[in-house]
Amino acid sequence: MRLTTTTQVSVDGVMQGNGGPDTRGGFERGGWARPLFDGEAMAFVDETYQRADAFLFGRRTYDLFAAYWGVRDDLENPIVGALNTRPKYVASNTITDPEWADTTVLSGDLVAAIRELKAKPGGELQVHGSAALTRWLLENDLVDEMNLLIVPVIVGQGGRLFADAGPDLALDLVASRAFPKGITLQVYRPAGRPEYAIGGVDSATLRD
């Protein structure tokens, strides 16, 4: 299976509270993404979930999804149907008896466990949200493709997808799409270390 991540971020990289209230760290601007998800953008999200063969979550996102999506039985909803009928994996050293059906807890050597999942036949092992897990997967060269849904808003506070300091990574842009209310989809594949220019470039050179 290919491991893909799908993440909603603001222009300034914020992930926190995209769908609604989230007061961690004194955050006060929850719900910034939802008003801009038009019919086309939501259709893309629905289609993405339907492509999944399995889902991988970090602990916090798993708890949120289990409490919201896991208790619903309207399986005709594309997201509800996908999440409640396909295998789920959660990376956690603290969960011992998950209540959401068809959930397997991954602990111990996570790199080996996820590589074993990726070696299985199938289409996509999907990660939704799960910022810390997404960063860790990138750092360990486990991500095959990233879907970034960039929402046209500067939130100005809150938890971001990437920290101020961390490993660097080059990305190849393989697809791009704009939705009616301004959300853009950028699909990237990791491409090793970035290249850096050596020496300075003055403004006159840039104009030539």
SSE blueprint:
Blueprint: E1 2-10, H1 39-51, E2 52-58, H2 59-68, H3 78-85, E3 88-91, E4 103-106, H4 110-118, E5 124-128, H5 131-139, E6 145-151, E7 171-178, E8 184-190, H6 203-207
Parallel strand pairs: 1-5, 1-6, 2-3, 2-5, 3-4
Antiparallel strand pairs: 6-8, 7-8
Helix pairs in contact: 1-3
Rg is: 18 Å
Give me the side-by-side strand order of the main sheet.
4-3-2-5-1-6-8-7
Number of domains: 1
Helix content, binned percent? 25-40%
**Biggest β-sheet strands, sense, barrel:** 8 strands, mixed
CATH class: Alpha Beta
Q: Which spans have pLDDT < 50 for at least 5 consecutive residues?
A: none
Notes on the protein architecture:
This protein has 208 residues and is α/β, with parallel strands linked by helices. It has one domain: Dihydrofolate Reductase, subunit A. Helix content is 26%, strand content 25%. It contains six helices and eight strands, in the order βαβααββαβαβββα. The chain has helices at 39-51, 59-68, 78-85, 110-118, 131-139, 203-207; strands spanning 2-10, 52-58, 88-91, 103-106, 124-128, 145-151, 171-178, 184-190. Strands 4-3-2-5-1-6-8-7 form an eight-stranded mixed sheet. The model has no long low-confidence stretch (mean pLDDT 93).
